[in-house]
Amino acid sequence: MLDEIAATRYVTPLREGGSLPGVVEADDLGTYVVKFRGAGQGRRVLVAEIISGELARRLGLRTPELKLIDLDPQIGVREPDEEVQDLLKASTGLNLAIDFLPGALGFEPLAWTPDWMFASRVVWFDGLIHNVDRSWRNPNLLIWHRDMWLIDHGAALWFHHNWPTADPRRPFDVGDHVLAPFATDLESAAAELSAKITPELLETVTALVPDEWLDDEPGFDSAQAVRDAYVDHLLRRAQGPHEWLRRPDTPTGRPAGPGSVGEFWRGGDR
Ligand SMILES: Nc1ncnc2c1ncn2[C@@H]1O[C@H](COP(=O)(O)OP(=O)(O)O)[C@@H](O)[C@H]1O
Ligand SMILES: [Mg+2]
Question: How far is the CA of 140 from the centre of ligand 2 (A)?
Fold first, then answer.
């Protein structure tokens, strides 16, 4: 189970994305980025964060610790911003807390060259979880203590917004991924990571999602049936064939040097 804590103070909203996550202090004296259940896309975003984040962690990719956080209706009472107040009211009860990494910087491809193997693992992993939210416009990678940390998996597993369209063979276009220019060994990454993705591993990470975020999902008769569907989908995608990975043309097959990253960067503007 994920640890459960209680919110003690709402500190400030993070206004970068659309979902208005907030910085919140909790009764374990920790500071967290909280994703609220009452935000636009609802509880499925939190499900995607848990399954993807906990899978990433077990595959050896760094991502901040996740906890469940209870939100008391009193927390928002003195909040001056009406939008925040409404969001807190709509999110009374369980929400998702992500350990806040103080002083972390956003990844900037012109300033930091990632390791090829690391980049290949991240690109393959994002393909596995259908994560289109790691583009150069919006990398969702933080540099903290000289390491790269993966954040924001709320847009992954997006097929769950319409389960009948879920397709484990759906193509994933690598071209838009911020680490694509560095991901030169996708074959090794696929072999290494897919070997680790067992039914037991997927059952472990889906078991971390609270029942109340899976109950009453249209087309399923229990929370466990939804978990089983995630397990089946990810297992089939991981076990291949991996034709879903669509590579951009990389004429030299070598990682891009700083100059060509610039080309890549500018190319995105057109
Ligand atoms: N664990 C964290 N530690 C420090 N900063 C974070 C953390 N999580 C998110 N942030 C900051 O907050 C911003 C928004 O969070 P994110 O998870 O990307 O949500 P969204 O893009 O859905 O609004 C990030 O771009 C990052 O700058
Ligand atoms: Mg984001």
Answer: 5
> Which CATH number applies to 4-99?
3.30.1010.10
What is the distance in A from the centroid of ligand 2 to the CA of 21?
10
| Residue 149 near residue 62, CB atoms below 8 Å | yes
Q: What are the residue ranges spanned by the domains of the chain?
A: 4-99, 105-267
With tokens 């043309």, the residue in question is 249
| Residues 41/46/52/58 CA torsion (nearest 10 deg) | 170
Q: How many CB atoms lie within 10 A of CB 139?
A: 20
Mutate to test the pocket of ligand 1, among 12, 99, 142 (most ligand atoms within 8 A of CB): 142
- Its pTM stands at 0.92
As a whole number of Å, the end-to-end CA separation of the chain is 46
Q: 35 and 67 in contact (C-beta within 8 Å)?
A: no
Confidence of residue 192 (pLDDT cuts 50, 70, 90): very high
